[in-house]
């Protein structure tokens, strides 16, 4: 096959565009529940339908594809950039619908994740995405989960129409600072990304208000007033957009929407539809630019608080393009750094930590040997030991080895009677980490002095194996949807003999 050749076969298109989508890691789903309905196909489970554990973000529960790998932009970090000489192809909307329905009926997938390069213009690309969604929802009557990557620069009317059909929308910020974005993606700007992100936030807030819900997500914040990095002073002063528009809360659509290009987009008829009920997310590339973990986490915290995102995803940069502004091709992706950022992101969203508690300008990067929560704990031994029978929920959450579920279970169980360490283990507490930082009824599990060096040595021993596995992913192979499990090693004469004798 010649490089640059335009592909027409559906199976070959699927191979190319599914592979091209693997670098987009934002493919988890949650926050939406839609039961089956007579005359329709599929449903969506509120607890989430897929989990991705691969370093490159592949997931077999969603049909994860690009609409096209054609692109008018020349982002230096992207394999599909305009200047790269790669095989180009594109699905038609009907082809995406056909693949989604056929895969769903065979129980291969439970939903669709659709992203795209920018072909012709942002508006034209979003029109094609809209056509896919409209046909899936109205022609094929598909009620499964759909996650759409919105294209920065598209008109608001198109985004509004897509948001009424998709379950989750996301716009990739890609890089944490305007300077890095300008250096690696000169055709993009902070304004073209954050403006539609603000629009989506406002529409989601309006939709939540119309359903009698809180306009913003509930999180375990420590402090509320915060801003950093990529946000201007004007953006920092903006409060909840949805609350100011509560009077426009009805999302019942009974007419067509007119969008640029003289295209008319019929909307769902006489049905109140929530706008992107699973929220919006974004993605940051890790390791392509010199920003520290501290800067990444401060920007992440600001995105959650200023734009009410459901998730911020991190993608370890994979060196594919040769460019002086990028790490050299062949360098290992910073997978352990990505892992630490995800751990810290969890602390921000569910454990009440602040980014400035975990890192600082004097200490800008995470400890490669300890997870962020353990690292914080050994640097704040004045907060420990914690008495399990008296500590409140927020204090329990700060103990390494105690998660949100186990903390709630402890609060419930200790109302009934005294607990022992065996009870804590049954409640889900990871005692090999927690025992350094807790006392139960005035006693430690093992007599241990609160000394930073001693505790650190013990914790590092527990996590060393996991860190090694993260840094040596070449020992593992990610399966894909079409894997036939054939080994690359050819059989030897001895193997044929064993097979003939029934020994294999």
UniProtKB/TrEMBL annotation:
<dbReference type="InterPro" id="IPR007197">
    <property type="entry name" value="rSAM"/>
</dbReference>
<dbReference type="InterPro" id="IPR051675">
    <property type="entry name" value="Endo/Exo/Phosphatase_dom_1"/>
</dbReference>
<dbReference type="InterPro" id="IPR013785">
    <property type="entry name" value="Aldolase_TIM"/>
</dbReference>
<dbReference type="InterPro" id="IPR010994">
    <property type="entry name" value="RuvA_2-like"/>
</dbReference>
<dbReference type="GO" id="GO:0006281">
    <property type="term" value="P:DNA repair"/>
</dbReference>
<keyword id="KW-0479">Metal-binding</keyword>
<dbReference type="GO" id="GO:0003677">
    <property type="term" value="F:DNA binding"/>
</dbReference>
<dbReference type="GO" id="GO:0003824">
    <property type="term" value="F:catalytic activity"/>
</dbReference>
<protein>
    <submittedName>
        <fullName>DNA modification/repair radical SAM protein</fullName>
    </submittedName>
</protein>
<dbReference type="InterPro" id="IPR023874">
    <property type="entry name" value="DNA_rSAM_put"/>
</dbReference>
<dbReference type="GO" id="GO:0046872">
    <property type="term" value="F:metal ion binding"/>
</dbReference>
<dbReference type="InterPro" id="IPR003583">
    <property type="entry name" value="Hlx-hairpin-Hlx_DNA-bd_motif"/>
</dbReference>
<keyword id="KW-0408">Iron</keyword>
<dbReference type="InterPro" id="IPR058240">
    <property type="entry name" value="rSAM_sf"/>
</dbReference>
<keyword id="KW-0411">Iron-sulfur</keyword>
<keyword id="KW-0949">S-adenosyl-L-methionine</keyword>
<dbReference type="GO" id="GO:0051536">
    <property type="term" value="F:iron-sulfur cluster binding"/>
</dbReference>
<feature type="domain" description="Helix-hairpin-helix DNA-binding motif class 1">
    <location>
        <begin position="394"/>
        <end position="413"/>
    </location>
</feature>
């Amino acid at each position: 096959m010649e490089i640059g050749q335009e592909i027409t076969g559906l199976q070959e298109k699927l191979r190319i565009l599914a592979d091209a989508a693997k670098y987009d890691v934002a493919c988890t789903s949650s926050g939406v529940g839609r039961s089956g309905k007579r005359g329709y196909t599929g449903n969506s489970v509120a607890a989430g339908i897929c989990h991705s554990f691969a370093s490159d973000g592949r997931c077999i529960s969603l049909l994860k594809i690009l609409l096209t790998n054609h692109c008018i932009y020349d982002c230096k970090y992207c394999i599909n950039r305009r200047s790269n000489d790669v095989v180009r192809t594109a699905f038609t909307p009907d082809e995406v619908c056909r693949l989604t329905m056929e895969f769903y009926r065979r129980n291969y997938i439970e939903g669709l994740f659709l992203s795209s390069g920018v072909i012709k213009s942002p508006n034209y690309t979003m029109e094609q995405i809209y056509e896919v969604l409209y046909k899936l929802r109205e022609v094929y009557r598909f009620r499964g989960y759909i996650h759409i990557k919105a294209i920065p620069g598209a008109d608001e009317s198109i985004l509004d129409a897509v948001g009424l059909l998709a379950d989750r929308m996301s716009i990739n910020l890609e890089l944490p600072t305007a300077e890095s974005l300008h250096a690696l993606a000169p055709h993009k700007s902070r304004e073209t990304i954050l403006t539609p992100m603000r629009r989506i936030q406002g529409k989601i807030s309006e939709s939540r208000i119309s359903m009698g819900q809180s306009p913003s997500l509930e999180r375990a914040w420590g402090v509320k007033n915060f801003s950093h990095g990529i946000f201007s002073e004007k953006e920092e002063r903006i409060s909840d957009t949805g609350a100011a528009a509560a009077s426009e809360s009805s999302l019942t659509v009974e007419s067509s929407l007119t969008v640029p290009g003289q295209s008319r987009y019929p909307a769902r008829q006489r049905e109140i539809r929530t706008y992107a009920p699973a929220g919006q997310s974004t993605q940051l590339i890790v390791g392509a630019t010199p920003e520290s973990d501290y800067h990444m986490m401060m920007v992440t915290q600001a995105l959650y608080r200023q734009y009410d995102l459901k998730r911020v995803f991190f993608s370890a940069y994979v060196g594919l393009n040769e460019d002086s502004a990028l790490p050299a091709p062949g360098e290992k992706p910073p997978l352990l750094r990505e892992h630490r950022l995800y751990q810290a992101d969890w602390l921000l969203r569910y454990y009440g930590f602040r980014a400035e508690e975990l890192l600082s300008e004097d200490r800008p990067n995470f400890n490669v040997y300890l997870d962020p929560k353990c690292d914080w704990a050994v640097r704040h031994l004045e907060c420990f030991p914690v008495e399990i029978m008296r500590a409140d929920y927020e204090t329990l959450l700060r103990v390494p080895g105690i998660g949100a579920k186990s903390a709630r279970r402890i609060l419930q169980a200790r109302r009934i009677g005294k607990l022992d360490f065996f009870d804590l283990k049954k409640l889900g507490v990871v005692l090999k980490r927690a025992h350094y930082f807790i006392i139960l009824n005035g006693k430690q599990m093992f007599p241990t002095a609160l000394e930073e060096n001693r505790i650190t040595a013990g914790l590092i021993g527990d996590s060393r194996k996991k860190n090694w596995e993260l840094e040596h992913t070449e020992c593992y192979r990610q399966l894909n949807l079409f894997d036939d499990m054939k080994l690359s090693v050819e059989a030897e004469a001895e193997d044929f003999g064993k097979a003939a004798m029934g020994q294999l």
